[in-house]
Fold this sequence. Notes:
By secondary structure, the protein is of the alpha/beta class. The chain has two domains: 17-265, Type I PLP-dependent aspartate aminotransferase-like (Major domain) (Aspartate Aminotransferase, domain 2), CATH 3.40.640; 268-369, Aspartate Aminotransferase, domain 1 (Alpha-Beta Complex), CATH 3.90.1150.10. The chain is built from nine helices and 14 strands. The chain has helices at residues 16-25, 44-61, 75-87, 101-114, 235-240, 250-266, 268-288, 317-327, 352-369, and strands at residues 5-6, 67-72, 93-98, 119-125, 152-156, 158-159, 164-165, 178-181, 198-202, 213-218, 294-295, 307-312, 330-331, 342-345. The strands form four sheets. The protein has a seven-stranded mixed β-sheet with strand order 2-10-9-8-5-3-4. A three-stranded antiparallel β-sheet has the order 11-12-14. Helix 6 (250-266) crosses helix 7 (268-288) and helix 7 packs parallel to helix 9 (352-369). The longest helix has 21 residues, at 268-288. Bound molecules: 4'-deoxy-4'-aminopyridoxal-5'-phosphate. Residues 10, 75-77, 102, 156, 160, 181, 183-184, 202 line the site of 4'-deoxy-4'-aminopyridoxal-5'-phosphate (PMP). 4'-deoxy-4'-aminopyridoxal-5'-phosphate binds at residues 10, 75-77, 102, 156, 160, 181, 183-184, 202. L-glutamate binds at residue 42. GO terms for molecular function: O-phospho-L-serine:2-oxoglutarate aminotransferase activity; pyridoxal phosphate binding. Its main location: cytoplasm. Pfam families: Aminotran_5.
Amino acid sequence: MSRIWNFAAGPAVLPAEVLEQVKDELLDWHGAGCGVMEMSHRGKEFTSIIETAEADLRELLGIPGNYKVLFLQGGATQQFAQLPMNLLPAGASAEYLVTGSWSKKAIKEAQRVCEGVASVRNAGSTEAAGFTRNLDTSVNANEISIDANAAYLHLCTNETIHGLELDCSRLPQTNVPIVADMSSHILSRPVDVSKYAMIYAGAQKNIGPSGVAIVIVREDFLGKAWKTIPSVMDYAVMAENGSMLNTPPTFAIYVSGLVFKWLKRQGGLAEMEKINRHKAELLYACIDESEGFYRNPVRVADRSRMNVPFTLASAELDTDFLAESKAAGLASLKGHKSVGGMRASIYNAMPTDGVRALVEFMQDFRKRKA
Length: 370
Ligand code: PMP
């Protein structure tokens, strides 16, 4: 068996060690006589799996005791709608920052579900700049206008398509509670959870298989849900039921739990941050030192360590680059259609050796084609 270096944006590469463990436990989990996919979500085996997963996630992220952790279905996209239904009371308003495709989708969906109920406002956007930088959040900047009475401010801390990242030391200075979509960089670096009213993320990039989304929400933001929403959509109901009002995505939660254990074995998020910073530096250096053969359009301070989009000197080279990289065992490098070019997603589970292999390929390709 030979595995490719998989640069897909999500579903994405998982740690080989975790997949080996899944393989070993697939037919018989710890002597249960059946695999996790086949066992009751109410039994003691699965209860221990979900409780351990939550405890490990709490430890990794340092989640304070007054936050609930929910394992939900519907992906991060469902959260775009579920979030206002839970946190934005009728007649209130919410603010959204738009810094890339995902935060744009988030506001659009919130506006859709809130029509006639509550107000969803664009409080600042970099769309005119082609989503190549984050908004300036310093005190004197006037790029953002936040209504101090808003129920929450939504932002996306890692824009997967445009390749922008915002670390929690550069959040807007406001007393309005902040809600963050961290789908594509959660667990890649330490984060101060207490700075957020809510964090959410789809699993299929840095957590585990698709099918589960994680919501981390401060307890005092619960209980404001619209009265008519389905009970599976109500955070407070899900929290009361330990994410098991109905059958949860058991297999995805189990694999996510194994990823959390793997992250702990790597030394936790401080260690992951060092590795991820190094991987990103290798790749951005290759781009920046290519004398314009490769280009990444994002302002240096805002560049994502997880998703690295880049274009080639001419679009005619794209086909060759994709074919030759694939032949060299480097997969899924085609950029998102809305930005073109290439994109390398280098999440936690992408080893440094994979990034080195990509850099070597890029240097060689340039030498041959420049
Ligand atoms: N937010 C971000 C930042 C994403 O990258 C994605 C998926 N690429 C989503 C939301 C949507 O996630 P899902 O497909 O799980 O709904």
